[in-house]
Amino acid sequence: MSGIVFYATENYDSVVRFYTETIGATVWLEQPDCTILQYENLLFGFCDREQTDSCSILTFVYDSKAAVDEMHSIVGDAAIETPHLNETYNIYQFFATDPDDRTVEFQVFVSDSVDSSVSD
Question: Are 46 and 16 a contacting pair, CB within 8 Å?
Answer without folding.
Answer: yes
